[in-house]
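[DERIVE STRUCTURE TOKENS]
===
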Amino acid sequence: MFWARLVFLAAISGLATAQEPPLDVAKSEPPQAAPSTSQLTQWAQDLGDEDYSKRQFATIQLYNHQVAAIPVAVEALKEASGEKGERLLQFLSSIAADPYSSDGAIAFEAIRNATYPKTTTKAIRAQRIIDAISEEQRVTAIEKLDGLGLQIRGRSIQVISTRQTIPNAFVIDRNFLGDSQDLDCLRWITGVEFARLEGPAITREILKQVLTLPNLQRLQLVQTLLRKEDLEELNDAPDLELLELIYSPVGDEVADLLGELPITGEMYLFGTQLTILGQQKLRSKFEGSELMIARGGFLGVQCPPTSVIIDEVVPGGAAQLAELQSGDKILSINGVKVVVFEDLRKELANFADGEEVTIEFERRFQGITEKKVTLGRRPDTIRDR
């Protein structure tokens, strides 16, 4: 498998040429005692020599002393070009094919650094190697996640009180039986912009791994037990368009932390323990486009953005238990008039689960009715598991 990877990477990067046959490293001399750094440096320099046999000999020696040669090759690649650069890329690509090893990670990073500036021949070939390794790892990672029951696919998910169809959603919930080490492959998964972490089994280490998703833009944390020290991992997150904390046990201690996160869009806190003072501190620091804070009382209705006519009653929600129906038009909450769905959402944000509110609504052919409704807790919001 190792040599198969080497031949594959050499072929796609254009390192094997018609003028020089590919080096048969498998037939090289067995490793001997580690040479000095100066000798390794000389061999790295000889990779660009005009003498073909000298180039071949130097290449074989670097492979024979691979571990010791890695730091020398990494340093030499920074300034190398032409034949020397090509051979150094080929040498490092064979090591970078296993990017999970410490040596492989060093080699992979060195090749990635060689992709700049983008206009050079060396950069173009380095990018081909990076693309090939990344694609191979992406395919392997998807297979691994699928074996853990973590399928990346479209799902119907409630996002900030609105049900949305999310393509390529990544969800970890109570059905996940693995641990954070099983998620070390997430850095290779491209195309995932939305992740949802749900349940008390979510740990700081799991959050840290999920934040390595290269294209992550929206993150939901639902009914986790993550505390302030755990959420500090968000400091190293990419710029997020959306962060939701739903029924989280955090309070005023996270106001400074959340207020300084790189959130470019919306932040939604639903059912946290922030007091009025904590909310004020967070609002004073938050620089995203919108901050919404709700105490966690859940009515369980879906309405169009421009009205308060119920489209759907969420199964198991307080509205269903109170026998509200699709088509009912909500007029007020505790005497406060509501006209559009945003009015309803903002008014309900003042109440926690278990608290009672008086809802005035109009039902076709039956007129206006008032009902006392005990708000509940937001149920599971993933329709398609």
